[in-house]
Specification:
Blueprint lengths: L18 E4 L41 E6 L13 H7 L4 E4 L4 E4 L2 E8 L2 E6 L13 H11 L3 H4 L11 E4 L2 E5 L7 H4 L8 H6 L14 E7 L3 E6 L12 E6 L3 H10 L4 E2 L4 H7 L5 E16 L10 H10 L2 H8 L5 E2 L24 H10 L7 E6 L3 H16 L3 E6 L2 H9 L7 E7 L5 H11 L8 H10 L5 H18 L2 E14 L2 E2 L1 H7 L9 E2 L1
Parallel strand pairs: 2-11, 2-12, 15-16, 15-17
Antiparallel strand pairs: 1-5, 3-4, 5-6, 6-8, 7-8, 9-10, 10-11, 12-18, 13-17, 13-18, 14-18, 19-20
Helix pairs in contact: 8-10, 9-11, 13-14, 14-15
Length: 534
């Protein structure tokens, strides 16, 4: 279910909505950010990720970086689906550090809001893409409009008024929102910007032949296997220290770990918890745990096409699955059991609200299934996108559902079609292993993104919708807690999504590679131009 906010969100504090984000070359001088949910009230300066890397990155002892990844999404087009490799090719206007809510300018020299629905962005002068096309304000407008053509990217521009948003001059663009939304300025930091000329010159929509403003250009792309990149000699910013970056697809976690040990890769992403613990403290390797506002959940298909339309069946599944077993089996204990449908760390959420959040109870699960008229042996499907973690979660969940008498079948899809499959209520899936993620670390924002924006659990609840709308409009902490407690109570009783485990990103790398912790601390995206070999 995709909806535009049906009622205008209440006016935010004027001071909390004044944003001045100005790049000041290298280094950073950041002010304290406003509380989550207060809109983009923070202001930060610095060019660490926009063409100035900081001390130590000017010389690299090795010219090639090999990064192990668990998948590629079948496209290098400037959409969110291209994930981490895409951030080396394309750049965004700015980048948000979701831990501190501070901003780092990238393509933008400054971004200022005069009220809750208007932002003026000034681009840095002299930016060109790898084909030599200059980046202009009109290209920013074009990029925002292009984002609406991709299912996931469209969520990141959902509140931008495309008709009112316009180029003021070659380096200035005014971005206008349809109505106030406290998340939109954060989400803008994830939208890849590119030139209209490059897209129109591409024969395949830049799926295989991308052209971006980033520090690297693609020299070879073999879908499902590898992506080879070379640093641009004509990069508009400061050249990265590492000349070549290769992204190597190794789907099996254990094989990625072996590749790190053998020297085939230098940096292992999406590391399995068991492998992480093997490398932690071992000489010659660096390790880092990045805690996220993100958690693994079971997303229920609440439509008429699934038995999960009955709240008693959803509750039964929640009681049937032991989250502690998921944490220990899949994540090797690295994390914590969720106390709700969102990350326990979200702002304006109190985990103690749910001290008894569906404790493992087989008899209670069976009783609820009986009350709902679900016969033993009833067939249910569990969908996942094929990643190692999600596949493992699906297998654990399957075993628990079999134990309460449900004939559980696992269905696996490729990541490129996963979202579109779930958009169809009649897709044949009852339960999906999914991740809820908050753009700004705010509880109501994560519920909004997971339940309503993605439109994949087909859950209808007008009261919940209105409460989320109101919660995302207020900066009053007490009021936030009151509203979010009401949201929480509905999410627990109706359980359209059952939270399993708060997740972390686990990084392991060859210790001669520097800059990984700095990069990981700032953002989940891989930023090659802050990495170098000692």
């Amino acid at each position: 279910m995709k909806k535009t906010m049906k009622k205008a969100l209440a006016a935010l504090l004027a001071a909390a909505l004044t944003l001045s984000l100005t790049a000041c070359g290298s280094g950073s001088d950041a002010t304290t950010a406003a509380p989550a949910g207060a809109g983009v009230a923070s202001s930060a300066s610095g060019g660490t990720f926009g063409g100035s890397k900081g001390e130590g990155a000017a010389v690299s002892a090795k010219d090639t970086l090999n990064i192990g990844i668990n998948k590629d999404n079948g496209t290098l087009a400037p959409v969110y689906n291209s994930q981490n490799p895409g951030y080396a090719i394309y750049e965004t206007l700015y980048m948000v550090d979701y831990n501190t809510e501070e901003y780092q300018m990238m393509l933008a020299e400054s971004a200022e809001t005069t009220d809750s629905t208007h932002m003026t962005v000034k681009l840095k002068d002299g930016i060109t893409d790898s084909a030599g096309n200059p980046l202009k304000a009109s290209d920013v407008v074009y990029s925002l409009q292009y984002a609406t053509t991709d299912t996931i990217s469209a969520m990141y521009v959902a509140y931008i008024d495309m008709e009112a948003t316009h180029a003021v001059d070659d380096l200035t663009v005014e971005i206008v929102l349809k109505e106030t939304n406290v998340q939109q300025w954060y989400q803008l930091g994830d939208v890849r910007i590119f030139t209209q000329a490059a897209m129109e010159a591409s024969s395949d929509g830049m799926v295989n032949t991308p052209v971006g403003t980033g520090p690297y250009k693609v020299t070879e792309y073999i879908s499902g296997s590898s992506i080879k990149m070379e640093a641009r000699d004509d990069y508009w910013g400061e050249a990265p220290a590492i000349k070549y970056v290769n992204w190597i697809v190794i789907s099996e976690n254990s094989q990625r770990a072996i590749a790190l040990e053998s020297g085939e890769i230098d940096l292992c992403l999406d590391t399995a918890a068991s492998d992480y613990m093997r490398f932690e403290g071992q000489e010659g390797y660096g390790t880092y745990v990045r805690h996220l506002f993100r958690n693994a959940i079971l997303e229920f298909n609440c439509s008429e096409y699934s038995i999960m339309k009955d709240v008693k069946v959803r509750q039964a599944v929640a009681y049937a699955v032991d989250s502690n077993a998921v944490l220990s089996t899949v994540f090797n204990g690295l994390g914590e059991v969720s106390n709700g449908a969102t990350s326990n760390a979200c702002a304006a959420f109190d985990p103690t609200w749910n001290n008894e959040y569906y404790p493992y109870n087989v008899e209670k699960a069976k009783a609820l299934l009986t009350e709902a008229g679900i016969a033993e042996g009833t067939h249910v499907t569990i969908g996942n996108n094929g990643t190692t973690v999600n596949s493992m979660i699906a297998e654990v969940v399957q075993s628990f559902l079999l134990a309460v008498g449900l004939d559980a079948e696992i269905m696996t899809y490729d990541n490129a079609t996963w979202s579109s499959v779930r958009q169809d209520a009649n897709c044949g899936l009852d339960i999906c292993v999914q991740v809820y993620s908050s753009p700004d670390g705010y509880y109501a924002g994560e519920i909004w993104s997971g339940v309503f924006s993605s439109g994949t659990n087909h859950y209808e609840n007008e009261e919940l919708y209105q409460l989320i709308s109101e919660a995302m409009a207020t900066v009053d902490t007490k009021k936030q807690l009151e509203l979010n407690k009401q949201i929480n109570d509905i999410m627990v009783s109706e359980v359209p999504g059952y939270g399993l485990v708060d997740m972390s990103n686990l990084y392991v790398w060859n210790a001669s590679l520097a800059g990984v912790e700095e990069m990981a601390l700032a953002n989940t995206r891989v930023i090659p131009n802050v990495l170098y070999f000692k």
